[in-house]
Design brief:
single chain, mainly alpha, 13 helices, 2 strands
């Protein structure tokens, strides 16, 4: 219990929530046009891989970050092409991207470095951390909010940017109209395919930032399947928050608390096999609550 009052615990919560923040934004931007991106997990994994590889070969973490985001964006464009042009089922396309990324990253890691499982032989390059002036000197708050990776602050900033984009801008209104009623959107001259393509590309960009953080911020190497279900957890957190980036980020923070709590419990000699289940158990509970609330809402509408 005393660990919960420790600033290091809440610092850890923000740290482990960072890839989820990006994942939630990726999920939100795709779902508001009715194109739920199941492939976020694979996009994050591909970005984590190319971020590490390119950063190591160029000896520049920022170029690695760009390469990682570019790889996930390319997967998003591929998914948009297959879904919108070739009429592939979106869920099947997303699952295919997840499976492709899982296998291809392992193959390429071995082909490029000769390593199996992790990029241990490569020199690591990470995105730098930032100490915030004045804030870092405030007791407790300074230890919680200052000294994070640069991508953590970009993730927090992106929550407000995406919320403004979705709620306040003409582009956000057009994207939401496509998701809520495509026929009505077409009747006022909005291109449904254009909006859905854009939403998937934006989703791929944010998923790329989340994946790059995992291999160049959370840790300093790439490991096989290192996303560990964070893409799926992000989708669950976004479902919890609906079309609000702020509520979605709050959902991600809840999962971050669960993961950080699991790490803390391991120090109490509780088996990691049990503590690692906490975020996924929470995911199931959240989805059950979300499904029940949707059913009740639908029933009330029918009764009226």
């Amino acid at each position: 219990m005393t660990d919960l009052l420790n600033p290091e615990f809440w610092y850890s919560v923000i740290r482990v929530s960072t890839p989820l923040f990006f994942g939630v934004m990726a999920s939100l931007l795709s779902s508001i046009t009715g194109t739920i991106n199941i492939g976020i997990e694979g996009m994050m994994l591909m970005s984590a891989f190319w971020g590490t590889i390119i950063a190591s070969f160029t000896q520049n973490s920022w170029i690695g970050l760009l390469a990682g985001v570019a790889s996930s964006t390319l997967l998003a464009i591929l998914l948009a092409y297959f879904h919108l042009k070739l009429k592939t089922d979106l869920v099947i396309g997303g699952v295919a991207i997840n499976l492709l990324s899982s296998g291809l990253t392992v193959f390429l890691l071995y082909a490029i470095t000769g390593d199996k499982g992790s990029s241990a032989s490569l020199r690591s390059f990470t995105i730098p951390k930032i100490d915030i002036p004045f804030l870092k000197d405030i007791p407790f708050i300074g230890k919680v909010l200052s000294g994070h990776n640069t991508l953590t602050y970009i993730a927090i900033l992106s929550i407000f940017v995406v919320n403004y984009l979705v709620k306040k801008t003409p582009l956000g209104i057009r994207m939401r109209s496509v998701g809520e009623n495509p026929d009505a959107a077409v009747s006022v001259g909005i291109s449904v395919n254009k909006m859905k393509s854009l939403s998937l590309v934006l989703s791929g960009i944010f998923a790329g930032f989340g994946g790059a953080f995992l291999s160049m911020g959370y840790v300093s190497w790439f490991a096989r399947d290192m996303t560990s279900g964070r893409g799926f957890i992000s989708i669950a957190a976004q479902a919890l928050g609906g079309n609000s980036a702020l509520f979605g980020a709050f959902g991600a923070l809840i999962f971050g608390v669960a993961e950080a709590l699991g790490i803390t419990l391991q120090s109490l000699r509780i088996p990691s096999e049990i503590t690692n289940m906490l975020p996924f158990i929470l995911t199931i509970v959240v989805l059950i609550i979300y499904a029940r609330s949707k059913i009740r809402s639908h029933s009330r509408i029918q009764e009226q």
